[in-house]
Amino acid sequence: MTRRICILLLALLLLSGTALAATLTVPDVLTLTYPDNWEDYGADDRDDVKDEYYNLGFICGPGDSDLNVSIDLYYFPEFADLRLFELDDQAAQDYAGMLMEDYENASFLEIRRVGDHAIPFAILEIEDSYGPCYIAETLTNGWDLCISAYAYVDSHYDASRALTEDDLEVFLGIVDSIVPIVN
Q1: For residue 26, what are the β-bridge partners?
Q2: How far apart are CA 100 and CA 83, in angstroms?
Q3: What is the pLDDT along the chain (183 residues), one digit of tens a residue?
Q4: Exposure pattern of 56-65 as b/e (b: 16+ CB <10 Å)?
Q5: Residue 61: what are its φ and ψ, rounded to 5°?
Q6: How many Cα neighbours within 13 Å face the side chain of 24?
Q7: How many CA atoms lie within 13 A of 126 on its CB side?
Q8: What is the DSSP string of 56-121?
Q9: Using CA atoms, how far apart are residues 175 and 62, in angstroms rounded to an integer?
Q10: Pairing of strands 21-26, 30-35
């Protein structure tokens, strides 16, 4: 009887399309999860500038037109004493407004509080010279954590496609999974 129940539960999981999640760990910064069938291309440090900018990782779906997600860290010394997660919702809204001024054709989607620390991420949809993109950003001690997602039309990787509600759902799932590594 127990074996039949296990087989039935396994079949239901397979039919529901539920995928196990893979974990990306950025030492001393964060962990996050992403769909199990995605690729983790790791960090690309070719453009890193010490104490100014670091690429922390790049993950993407298995198909040529699937979502691509980059995780980046930028330092802004003028915000060295600011911890957005310690401030109220109005401060997070002000931060989102500042971001919208920095991006071309930006639309504010929401302030999303993530994890046990209720880290506020400004979620934006932008369109720039590379095409449409979802952005999630937060700030602590001058470090701006930026997660961006876009998708190509095909395997030529020279044109981006419009993003969908399904893309947004996957992106927000990744953002929601962020857990800071607190020393």
Answers
A1: 30
A2: 19
A3: 444 433 333 333 333 344 569 999 999 999 999 999 999 999 999 999 999 999 999 999 999 999 999 999 999 999 999 889 888 889 999 999 999 999 879 999 999 999 998 999 999 999 988 899 999 999 999 999 999 999 999 988 889 999 999 999 999 999 999 999 876
A4: bbbbbbeeee
A5: -65, 165
A6: 25
A7: 23
A8: EEEEE-SSTTSEEEEEEEEE-GGGTT-BGGGS-HHHHHHHHHHHHHHSTT-EEEEEEEETTTTEEE
A9: 19
A10: antiparallel
- DSSP letter for 163, please: P
Copy the structure tokens of residue 9: 């539960």
Contacts of 63 (CB under 8 A, 6+ apart): none
* pTM of the predicted model as reported, rounded to 2 decimal places: 0.86
Specify the pLDDT at position 87. Answer: 86
Comparing CA positions, the residue from 180, 154, 145, 149 lying closest to residue 64 is 154
* AA letter at 172: L
